Design the sequence.
């Protein structure tokens, strides 16, 4: 048997913390290792597989498009790109009129930062404590975690971090150099911290009054994850830029910045080689169609409540609090989560950390009820153990 772990350790630059697991196959909400063992996936590629693994609609679109045209530079118009842009703008908040397509969430954030500087002629950005926006240099500059930032300073100047959901602290940090405010609707890696309507109403008012651009990061919360196509719908947020990625294309690398009329970038000021390529656009069209045709927003609401009801009605000795919107779930523990992540993996359940004490669950929105039952049973068992 080929030792894939040994090969990867030999040739891969070791930037990722690894679990002792070789994943070789996936179908819907299940993953399989190289020995054939089955796991229920509550990682979803860090929130990518909202429509499940090996989705047949996306696979068919990729097969068809790969035989027609894979790449097309931005200097030409393209049919699939045109159709996706129209579709994407159509499902976003109605103040957003145009989109820039790229390859990832970090690229979307980088683009939004550049657009902010160009439009406002200011370099100041306000971000949130516990925020995560990516690991490229600009995205890292607006990411709060010191462990990620250490060793790469100096990062972009003019970045201020304020406590999330605390409007007084945010307003005090605004000055004459503030060009943009960048926020997640729900902090994912930060521990599933959910914003409030009052907070985002006040942020929008400050932006309007001070002529500041509001950038909303829905890279993880977008595309039905929380029970709406975008989480900002819960709070009636009208961003000037909406950053998207992860599940936008059913697993294919893609990102987007969807912009209001305030954003107008001249030719030559930004660009991408692979962003908005026909193959990724075909996958995204198929993925969005699958989400809407199968009403995955409603599924996320119903399945999230189904799982939460099972957990709420059980004693969980190691749990301090559970935070949830749709199928975005954070279980805050009284202890560090790593031993429980590994223990759940032994039980065939794959989960993520979130912050320093949170188990993060992001299962595919297509997950079956019996698999939710299995997740609940394992959580109830494991989270009553002292590890």
Sequence:
């Amino acid at each position: 048997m080929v030792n894939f772990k040994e090969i990867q350790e030999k040739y891969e630059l070791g930037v990722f913390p690894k679990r002792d697991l070789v994943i070789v196959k996936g179908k819907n909400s299940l993953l399989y290792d190289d020995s054939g063992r089955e796991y229920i996936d509550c990682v979803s590629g860090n929130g990518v597989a909202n429509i499940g693994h090996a989705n047949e609609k996306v696979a068919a679109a990729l097969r068809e498009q790969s035989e027609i045209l894979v790449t097309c530079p931005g200097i030409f118009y393209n049919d699939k790109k045109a159709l996706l842009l129209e579709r994407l703008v159509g499902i976003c908040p109605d103040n957003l009129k145009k989109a820039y397509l790229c390859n990832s969430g970090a690229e979307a954030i980088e683009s939004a930062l550049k657009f902010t500087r160009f439009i406002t002629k200011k370099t100041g950005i306000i971000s949130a404590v516990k925020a995560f926006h990516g690991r490229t240099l600009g995205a890292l500059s607006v990411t709060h975690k010191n462990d990620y930032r250490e060793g790469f300073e100096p990062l972009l100047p003019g970045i201020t971090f304020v406590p999330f959901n605390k409007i007084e602290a945010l307003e005090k940090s605004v000055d004459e150099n503030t060009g943009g405010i960048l926020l997640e609707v729900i902090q994912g890696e930060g521990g599933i911290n959910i914003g409030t309507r009052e907070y985002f109403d006040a942020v929008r008012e400050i932006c309007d009054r001070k002529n500041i651009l509001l950038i909303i990061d829905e890279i993880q919360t977008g595309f039905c994850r929380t029970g709406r196509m975008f989480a900002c719908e819960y709070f009636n947020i009208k961003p000037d830029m909406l950053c998207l990625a992860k599940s936008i294309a059913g697993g294919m690398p893609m990102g987007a910045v969807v912009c209001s009329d305030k954003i107008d970038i001249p030719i030559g000021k930004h660009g991408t080689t692979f962003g908005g390529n026909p193959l990724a656009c075909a996958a995204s069209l198929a993925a969005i169609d699958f989400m809407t045709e199968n009403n995955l927003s409603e599924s996320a609401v119903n399945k999230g409540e189904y799982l939460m009801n099972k957990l709420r009605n059980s004693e969980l000795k190691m749990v301090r609090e559970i935070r949830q919107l749709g199928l975005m779930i954070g279980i805050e523990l009284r202890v560090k989560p790593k031993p429980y992540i590994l223990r759940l993996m032994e039980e065939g359940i794959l989960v993520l950390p979130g912050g320093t004490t949170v188990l993060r669950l992001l299962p595919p929105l297509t997950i079956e009820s019996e698999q939710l039952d299995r997740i609940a049973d394992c959580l109830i068992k494991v989270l009553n153990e002292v590890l």
Remarks:
- Residues 160 and 225 are 29 Å apart (CA to CA).
- The mean pLDDT is 97.
- The first strand starts at residue 23 and ends at 27.
- DSSP finds 14 helices and 17 strands in the chain.
